[in-house]
What we know:
By secondary structure, chain A is mainly alpha-helical. Chain A contains 7 helices and 4 strands. In chain A, a hairpin with a 2-residue loop joins strand 1 (130-131) and strand 2.
Amino acid sequence: MGTRITNNMISRSVLADLNEVASRQAATRRQMSSGKAITRASDDPYAAGRAMALRNELGGIRQHSRNVEEAQGWMAVTDTALSHIGDMAQRARELVIKGASDTLPDTSREAIAAEIEQLIAGMKQEANGTYDGRYVLSGSRTNVPPYDSRVLPPPAAPNDTYGGDSVKQQREIGPSVRMDVNTTGDRVLGGAPGDGKMLDILRNVAAHLRSGDTVSLGTQDLKDLTGQIENLLGIRAEVGAGVNRLETAAARLDQTEESATALLSETEDADMAKTLIDYSTQQAVYQSALNAGSRIVQSSLLDFLR
Amino acid sequence: MAVSTFMGIQTMLRGLLAQQRALDVTNHNVANANTVGYTRQEAVLGTTQPLAIPAGALNGTGSLLGTGVDVMSYQRVRDQFLDLQYRAQNMSLGEKSARSNSLQHVELALAEPGSNGVAAALERFWGAFGDLSNAPENPAARQAVVDKARALADNINQLQTGLSAAVTQAGAEFSALTASGGDIHRMAADLAGTMNAIRDAELTGAQPNDLYDRRDLLLDKLSEMGQVSVTASPAGGTDVALGGVTIVESDDTTGVARVPAGAFPMTFTSSPGGRLGALSDLASPTGPLAAYQQSLDRVAQMIAGTSAGTGVTTVNDIYQRDNPGTPLFTYGIGPAGTPVLALNPAITAATLSAGPGGPGANQTALDIAALRGGAIDKEYAQMVTAIGSAVADSKRQEATAQVLTDNLKDRRESVSGVSLDEEMTNLIRFQRAYQASARAMNTTDDMLDTLINRTGRVGL
């Protein structure tokens, strides 16, 4: 006897086939509505793991881009402040040369001394520059201005103390690539009387102008001031190099973001054209399965018996 | 000895009755076409005892005259060998589908890949620290760190709770099935009752086909739970064991079946196979779910533990390096018995430290943000891939087992199932035979009419 085919076998197999087609269709529908080829880890465990790693990488790249932007803003403020301070230091140097001349009357020297003091105040003002409400030259003490830039009337001693600290501020601009973004005020202007830095020297210059010590002005002071201007130029070069480095980093990050995004999309996004075609194919298969099923299940010897 | 004049009527009466019984069996089959576990029956027809007649025979040696038909037995069309194959495969299906169900629940709790899972929470957590490193003084950035840290802890706890719920659920289902008074106990009692009813019927010489079906259906259902073995016991009874535990035993002298005392709740010495095997594996501390719990625990340890315990620099390590005595996270067993990760309550947007030094110091934040994509993310991704593979694997195995089971079901159905076409054919066959018997009876009747009413009327 050959294989008997019973009505229950037919119903079961028609139903199983319909279920199979319907569940395939449901998976395709899920891909269409979510736009993702992988909506569950089991859809493709390897790709799911890879997508997670890529998304993480992409998150890191975007973070680094934000860090770079932040650092660029910070360094731009620093660079401007240093540039203005540099201009003022040049002016001070011209004044020292002028004041060192023996032929100059005392009143003129007094006027020059007053201008030097104004320059000191101006430099301090520049050093108090802020980015996003934070003092950029204060080290980590970003909530306090590095210098007291008030010009006090004569009896009061001027306060040249540096208010910040020397903590370095770093930004991560790439995986394990960190960069110092801040320049502390003490490196630029100094922060204590007698430390031989910019403010200390300019105070000496003012004193020597008032006392008419043209010898000191023309030799030691001029030499010290020139040294400080060189120091300043060195720091500006550092900052400039930093700015360049940030620009390169930003360009590189943009590129990597683009390729990581493309890779992620390739890994987890559904190919819409293919998904739509798959769906309509499955729809057609489903309908013909329904059609065939309805014929198979219905026909029976009963239809032909009178 | 002469043959009775009325023998033809008697023969045709047997024919009528036998065809009628055959029609009754057909009706029974049609009525039960959709009854689960029903086995189609056949009326086996056979010739009745022939009549020995000496006269009219060749050479006077006597001969046998057929006397008609009768139903010899009502046969149940079933292949016991297919039953054994089906039950073995059904056990495998029970195991695979229980495993696949549970793992798919875990996968849903995992919610990966997507924006609601732990991976996304980790990503946002690292981002918050990255932003904090850019603007440590910014209250919004500080608040974001606190919020994302809480969200990360919540996410991990939720997943841990989901995993532990899956373990508990598997254990609870296992207990409910194997408990005294549980599903299996009820089936065993039903089976013992059915076996005794069969025995009683057989003792009177009857063939209780429908009771056999009931017994076989119960064995089919039990086979989904675990390894079923049916063995003959002395006194003609049978013993039934599930996963090595005897759940129905027959008395060695009387053959009466009963559920042995102390069989429930069931305790297994080895894996019972089937659904019970899968459930006990899922609930076991060495099972797959426990392995995922441990994986997630390692992730939490890499956040809130120490490098001594995990072998990697943890988030807490970095935070405590710069803030001795103040961990960022706390981690311990919670009131529900599952490990709970939480942000240290002492840490708020105001007290959070981004680094040692002034308000602009950011070393801590930088170092924590740099953990992104490190051991923590990798450990978690590995766990997700492991769960994904396990789910994909179990789905595939379930589908295969389903196909094989369906296949065997079809083969069994092919032997034992009711085919309406066939029954309709039989209906016509037996109806026609019935009609023909009646017709033959008519013919005999006509003959008798001739004999009785027309004979001896010569000249009348």
